[in-house]
Amino acid sequence: MGPRSAARSVLVRLARLPIEAVRMARAAAVLGDGAALDLVADLAGIDDEQRAAAADALVRAEILRDEPLVGFVHPLVRDAVHHDVSPVERAQAHRRAARLLADRSAPPERIAAHLLAVPPRGEPWVVETALAAAGVAARTGAADAAVEHLRRALAEPPPAALRTEVLLQLGRAELLTRGPDAVQHLLEASAALADPGARAGVAQLLGRGLLFTGDPAAAADLARRAAAELPPGHEDLRARLSAFELMAVFFGGGDPDTLRRLEPHRVLPVPDGLGAKMLAAVAAQEWAYAGGSSEVCAELARQALDGGALLAADFELLGMTALVTLVLADSEAAPAAMDAAQADAHRCGSLFTKAAVSLWRGFALLRFGELADAERSIRTGLDEFVQWGFGDVGAQVHGAAFLSAVLRERGDLPGARRALELAHDPGDASEAARYWSHHRLELLVAEGRLAQALPVADDAARRFGFLRHPVDTPWRSPRAVALHGLGRHDEALALLADELDLARAWGAPGTVARTLRILGTLRRDPDQLRTAAEITAGTPARLEHVKALAALGAALRHSGRVREAREPLRRAVELAEACSAPGLVDHARTELYAAGGRARATASTGPASLTASERRVVGLAVHGATNRDIAQALFVTPKTVELHLSNAYRKLAISSRRELAGALATA
């Protein structure tokens, strides 16, 4: 039966019952399934003698289930009864239900659910109940429910003494779900506070709202003023505000010269205290670009993350900054740290956190050589940030740049161009502008538009020259490729020699290998290319390893060493397929055929050919986890687990999970 037919049938049956049964059915519809019979009867105004007869009549009419707790036979039946009264009567019934539940000391979230259906009347108990219910929702990761209850409290409205607290709690909850709304309510709460310490606490929240909704300068100024107003004795809070102010520089919210204030915080071990950890997280990333070594910067970031306080306090900004530094350093801990971040983001119930993790995990997966997963993660992050209300600059620019890079690496240059055009260059020295400008430069070179690439590279050198190391957005190497293509070989090689010195000072395998690969390709120097392949083998910089193998094989073939070229080219074909990089597969396969070789009949074999996602699934399966357990642990569908296991069985030349441990042990 359709919903309308079902509703008519229910109401016809209900109309034939005694009035006490009708009132009980309506009370049950208000309270919802699972209510005790005496509570339903009290709400219906039915005495002890009538309640049993009324309930029995409703069971015989197939409206209620024959169970100890009251429940309808189907949700459609409950909806039909609930909507068979006027909106005014329903609201009055929900108010009475809330009062009855409060008198019985029911959980606040159960009472507050009824208050959502009740028009505001300025009653303090309603505000207090909504606040309590919001607290429960926040503690259990139900951010949307917390926002709903707090908006109801604000609408009541709250007494003057409670209004600021409601605004503050609402803004905090909205930061997880809808940024622009959070900024509005936190601004109002901040204006009502007289205590500098309390204002500084709100500034930490409001600053992040302003930063991520597109006003980094206002965010930095807010943090600076709040820190200056603090009296002595609030040093940790002052350090937290300082860390945020300096982080805002990366978003275009200040003068890059102010980052020199981070120099005293490049120290190991990282001091105790949340403020010190926050400053260490910013210092680690700033020093990565300014001249530090990958080993030291990664350790700074790791110690900032140690203990979990940083991620608990500021997952989306400074916590993610430390995680990204591990990725930039090609730290062995980076893949597991990003996986843990994704799991935590799912558990916390914050759209804001989930969006940040999706975007930056996609960035990490790009470097790890998992291009299909990277594309999915970045697209998800872009969608989530739109829902949250991120400003026009920031996540949308980052996401467009990262998506363009993934599609370019997959060989889809038209798609990469369309992705880049999802956003525009902010025109400043922000991190978002740097990524967008860099991937525009790389795309122009890949498209063969070499003359157009040169002014873009020059602009990057001018705008982002304060960032010394070529960590992830080098301008010299793409400019060198363009110069070489235009016949200016000496200039190209000089640029690459400079970049190689800087890359070695940073020391991350992927960064050094990238410059070695380009330099070795232009010089056709197999030794440099072999070194690039060797230093990235077994590191998280898997995509760069595959590129180095392909370049090495091509250089050997061009130098006449065709037999020697075949093995690195075969390996490049296999690993490029595992990376979901069809453009690189085609290039390596073409070179292999030209060298007189053929790809192996079973491509991508052995444990080393497993993608990181496949390795995670296999690792859990080896320890006895079921497909459903693995799906829940990794926040994917059981179908995805089946696909990864199937791919792993093929690559390991086995047929069941019983053989997994042996196949991995013999590697």
List key phrases describing it:
single chain; 667 residues; mainly alpha; Arc Repressor Mutant, subunit A; 35 helices; 0% strand
Task: Report what the structure shows.
It is a single chain. With 667 residues, the chain is an all-alpha fold. The chain contains 35 helices and no strands. It has helices at 3-15, 19-31, 37-44, 48-60, 75-82, 87-103, 108-115, 124-139, 143-155, 160-174, 179-191, 196-212, 216-229, 235-247, 274-290, 294-305, 309-328, 334-348, 351-368, 371-388, 395-409, 413-420, 431-446, 450-463, 476-485, 489-506, 509-523, 526-536, 542-558, 562-578, 582-594, 612-622, 627-634, 638-652, 660-665. The model has no long low-confidence stretch (mean pLDDT 91). GO terms for molecular function: DNA binding. Pfam families: GerE.
Rg over CA atoms, rounded to whole Å, is 31 Å
Quote the beta fraction: under 5%
Overall pLDDT score: 91
- Give a short account of the largest sheet: none
Alpha-beta content class: mainly alpha
The CATH architecture of one domain can be given as Orthogonal Bundle
For the record, what CATH class of one domain applies? Mainly Alpha
Oligomeric composition of the shown chains: single chain
Q: What is the straight-line distance between the termini? A: 60 Å
Query: What shape does the CA trace take?
Result: globular
